[in-house]
């Protein structure tokens, strides 16, 4: 434990990730569920995680400036519709651009309600979710109904998707018309080895079959961190979420900042929505977001309101879904992974002298492992629920060390404080 | 600008005929204030006299309805604090304006960040400037630590640094000593003297007259919204200054005619309370306190040394590790809070906003809180609004709570009146033992006198009081015995007849008494 505490945050992340890979590798060797660390799973995890990541970043921007944004789901819904509309009329990139504009406007609406009219943040957010669901249905009837392939619950197909990207040499990408060798792909197929194929699969997953919007979304993680912690604008945004009175007394235009950050938040959430309707698929469908806005908000909390934390959370939430998408037979192996992780957490809690928690964790581990060995087929419903169960477990476990922005969600009127 | 030749006599700040009205109230009228540069100028007055309103006017947080503001000889109009900052005025607020989760550097540079062309903060440059300022202030902390890790005195330093960082030459300090222990007050004034020697001007708002007389160069007195006197410490003494402030005779905490009773009302024996984290040191360690009928036992101590935990343990809000608590001879160590209250325990809480009042609820609901089982306020299982309202009116009358009616919400009252209402409620149920935590914190002299009178009166009728206070004069004046708490233990027993504030201050900061009594 002491050794672990002496590491920097970055080193800890690497150590934990390697540990996690090791667990996956052992489980893979044991269960022959080769797909749990294949490059296909990893790249599909990234794809599934991207909308969650964007929703999580939307949450970071909103809460850091001091506004609780339950409306992320609604802003995503707006994003899916405008993404679908833009993709159908002009192409996918236009769809994303249109969605971001529309989402920013909805973000501004939330800011108007909470900042100008001091509406309770949760109430306004829920209103936006309801409004978004209703408005998109109405717009669909006007614009999509009667069009070829369109209807009141879906848009006509969009004009083409995105080029996918493969890294030369590492994952067999092309240079001009020449196919470079796929080195990682070759290592990945050596399934009998421990750890090595898993690592190769992991890295190859990051550099093959990647949509360009995914790359844009992931690059927003360091960009957000840079803006929030290195620039004047970012410092002011954070001060607004921690203590708007302090900022106001020093001449920081708190209200204007809140509008700006909410426009960014809405734009990010809508980008996440548009990703679903014109990258992940090529049409808008009603109900396409399926609550991913809420999961995104959960990653905001799980990620301790930091962009990199949100990234970790999004990957964690995306992984079970990706496994499910690829082949449901993989999911039982996940039970074993959960069991191993719970045992590890139990050991950590024992070291911290928390016997009760350790006992609980061990019971959980036993149940997981027993389920794996006793049950041949995991019911479809359980498979569908897995990401959500993981969400609850992760949040329950992470809760104690989290520190939200001190002033997020609290009513604030400029000039009313000392 | 016109009279450059008189630069030597030029005043740092000059206010003439300032009047500020809020809906229904005239907060300031006909204010005249002249502040010479290079001085510490005190503005004294009771709470609610309009000191803070005046300073907000000077700092541009709102605009005066009438009157003129002149800074360094220039007629100015401040629309926002930014204008005031540009004119070289800085304000250190009474309630610190710090973001806990930002670093010291971030808090200081906020709003005036050194940036390059792309908006990136030049942290190195900021840090160097802050370290220079820290040296001139005599402050020693790492500017990269989070403000959440700092103590009160250090936070105040950060506030002063914030102001200096903006190049302020005129510093307004709004009741800066309200949160400090005597030693910290000394340090603060050493710092201020240093700044004044470097050419700064300090406007110091306070109602603590000893400090004002000891450290300030000039004094302006404000009473009921207007300036009533301009004087210097050599021309007045404590009493005459206080009378200028109040406009009448003064209250005095001391005085008793009755004897302390022989029956023990509250007995705490060998009380231990576990710390927040398992394995950490005890929050309370071997506390022994006895309060007799008709006795006031004072507890002195810097906040956070176990006073709060002691009150909550006595009330049964925390589960104690070992030891015993009894009220009127009845062992209550593991009783429910409700039982303890029914035994005659009563509590004036530390923070009236957090624990004492429902700010959005009307006064009559507030005076009913905690007295739900009082049969004179209910009709069987139902509460009787008319009975509660008339009971509330009697509390309002008896304690002189200034309010239009018992129907207004609690937030509409000033701090002093809120406190009187809380004290009134706790006294109304005729308690046997009263835990009074800071009963007169943040209230003006008039309200303080009223609360002291009620405490004395109740004591003379046999009430046992455990008094926790940061006002050392109050402690010494009211208490029959004083215990000092430090780090969760009782470290000294003092006799108020011989104790001085300095003595208390020494024990409060960790000095132990050689001989236990």
Notes on the structure:
The complex is a heterodimer of chains A (about 425) and B (about 525). Chain A is mostly helical. Chain A is built from 17 helices and four strands. Chain A has a domain of about 230 residues. In chain A, the strands form two sheets. A two-stranded antiparallel sheet of chain A has the order 1-4. Chain A has a two-stranded antiparallel ribbon with strand order 2-3. In chain A, helix 3 crosses helix 10 and helix 3 crosses helix 13. The mean pLDDT of chain A is about 85. Chain B is α/β, with parallel strands linked by helices. Chain B has three domains: about 190 residues, Rossmann fold; about 170 residues, Rossmann fold (3-Layer(aba) Sandwich); about 70 residues, no CATH class. In chain B, the strands form five sheets. Chain B has a six-stranded mixed sheet, with helices on both faces. The relative contact order of chain B is 0.10. The N terminus of chain B is likely disordered. Chains A and B meet through helix 10 and helix 11 of A and helix 2 and helix 3 of B.
């Amino acid at each position: 434990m002491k050794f672990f505490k002496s590491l920097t945050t970055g080193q800890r992340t690497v150590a934990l990730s390697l540990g996690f890979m090791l667990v996956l590798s052992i489980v893979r060797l044991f269960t022959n569920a080769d797909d749990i660390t294949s490059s296909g799973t990893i790249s599909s995890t990234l794809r599934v995680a991207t909308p969650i990541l964007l929703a999580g970043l939307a949450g970071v921007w909103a809460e850091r400036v001091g506004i609780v944004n339950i409306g992320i789901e609604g802003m995503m819904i707006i994003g899916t519709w405008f993404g679908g509309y833009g993709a159908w009329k002009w192409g996918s990139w236009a769809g994303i651009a249109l969605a971001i504009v529309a989402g920013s406007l909805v973000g501004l609406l939330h800011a108007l309600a909470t900042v100008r009219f001091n509406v309770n943040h949760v109430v306004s957010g829920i209103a936006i979710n309801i409004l978004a669901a209703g408005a998109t249905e109405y717009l669909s009837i006007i614009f999509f109904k009667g069009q070829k392939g369109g209807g009141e619950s879906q848009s006509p197909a969009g004009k083409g998707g995105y080029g996918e990207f493969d890294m030369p040499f590492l994952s067999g990408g092309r240079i001009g018309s020449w196919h470079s060798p796929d080195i990682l792909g070759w290592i990945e197929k050596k399934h009998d080895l421990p750890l090595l194929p898993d690592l190769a699969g992991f890295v190859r997953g990051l550099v093959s079959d990647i949509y360009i919007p995914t790359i844009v979304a992931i690059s927003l993680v360091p960009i957000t961190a840079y803006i929030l912690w290195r620039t004047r604008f970012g410092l002011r945004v954070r001060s607004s979420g921690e203590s708007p009175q302090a900022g106001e007394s020093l001449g920081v235009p708190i209200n204007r900042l809140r509008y700006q950050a909410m426009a960014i938040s809405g734009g990010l959430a809508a980008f996440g929505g548009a990703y679903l309707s014109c990258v992940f698929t090529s049409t808008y469908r009603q109900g396409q977001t399926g609550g991913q806005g809420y999961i995104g908000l959960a990653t905001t909390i799980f990620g301790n309101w930091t962009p990199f934390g949100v990234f970790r959370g999004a990957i964690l939430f995306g992984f079970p879904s990706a496994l499910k998408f690829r082949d449901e037979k993989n999911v039982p192996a996940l039970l074993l992974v959960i069991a191993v992780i719970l045992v590890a957490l139990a050991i950590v809690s024992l070291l911290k002298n928390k016997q009760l928690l350790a006992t609980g964790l061990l019971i959980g581990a036993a149940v997981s492992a027993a389920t794996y060995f006793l049950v041949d087929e995991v019911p479809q419903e359980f498979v569908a629920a897995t990401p959500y169960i993981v969400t609850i477990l992760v949040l329950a476990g992470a809760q104690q060390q989290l520190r939200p922005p001190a002033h997020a969600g609290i009513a604030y009127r400029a000039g009313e404080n000392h | 600008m016109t009279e450059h030749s008189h630069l030597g006599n030029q005043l740092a700040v000059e206010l003439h005929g300032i009047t500020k009205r809020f809906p229904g109230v005239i907060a300031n009228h006909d204010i005249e204030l002249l502040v010479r540069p290079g001085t510490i100028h005190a503005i004294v007055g009771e709470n609610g006299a309009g000191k803070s309103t005046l300073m907000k006017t000077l700092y541009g947080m709102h605009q005066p309805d009438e009157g003129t503001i002149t800074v360094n000889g220039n007629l100015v109009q401040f629309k926002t604090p930014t204008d005031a900052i540009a004119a070289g005025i800085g304000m250190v607020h009474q309630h610190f304006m710090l973001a806990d989760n930002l670093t010291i550097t971030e808090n200081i540079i906020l709003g005036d960040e050194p940036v390059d062309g792309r908006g990136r903060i030049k942290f190195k440059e900021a840090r160097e400037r802050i370290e220079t300022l820290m040296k001139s202030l005599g402050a020693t902390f790492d500017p990269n630590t989070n403000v959440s890790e700092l103590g009160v005195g250090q936070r105040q330093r950060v506030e002063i640094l914030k102001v200096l960082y903006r190049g302020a030459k005129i510093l307004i300090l709004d009741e800066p000593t309200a949160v400090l222990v005597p030693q910290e007050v000394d340090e603060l004034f050493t710092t201020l003297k240093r700044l004044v020697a470097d050419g700064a001007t300090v406007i110091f708002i306070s109602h603590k007259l000893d400090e004002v007389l000891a450290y300030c160069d000039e004094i302006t007195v404000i009473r009921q919204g207007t300036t009533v006197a301009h004087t210097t410490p050599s021309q007045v003494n404590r009493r005459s200054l206080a009378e200028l402030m109040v406009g009448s005779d003064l209250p005095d905490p001391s005085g008793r005619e009755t004897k302390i009773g022989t029956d023990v009302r509250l007995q705490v024996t060998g009380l231990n309370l576990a710390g927040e984290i398992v394995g950490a040191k005890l929050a309370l360690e071997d506390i022994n306190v006895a309060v007799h009928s008709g006795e006031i036992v004072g507890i002195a101590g810097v906040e956070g040394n176990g006073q709060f935990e002691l009150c909550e343990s006595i009330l049964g809000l925390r589960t104690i590790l070992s030891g015993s608590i009894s009220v009127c001879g009845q062992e209550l160590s593991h009783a429910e809070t409700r039982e303890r209250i029914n035994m005659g325990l009563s509590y004036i809480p530390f923070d009236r906003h957090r624990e004492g009042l429902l700010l959005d609820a009307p006064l009559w609901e507030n005076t009913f809180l905690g007295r739900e089982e009082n049969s004179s306020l209910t009709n069987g299982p139902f509460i009787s609004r008319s009975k509660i309202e008339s009971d509330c009116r009697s509390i309002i009358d008896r304690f002189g709570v200034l309010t239009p009616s018992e129907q207004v919400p609690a937030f509409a009252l000033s701090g002093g009146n809120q406190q009187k209402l809380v004290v009134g409620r706790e006294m109304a149920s005729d308690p046997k033992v009263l835990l009074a935590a800071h009963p007169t914190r943040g209230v003006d002299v008039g309200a303080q006198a009223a609360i002291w009178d009620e405490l004395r009166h109740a004591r003379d009728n046999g009430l046992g009081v455990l008094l926790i206070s940061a006002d050392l004069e109050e402690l010494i004046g009211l208490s029959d015995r004083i215990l000092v708490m430090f780090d969760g233990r009782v470290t000294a027993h003092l006799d108020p007849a011989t104790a001085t504030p300095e003595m208390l201050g020494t024990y409060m900061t960790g000095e132990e008494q050689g001989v236990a009594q």
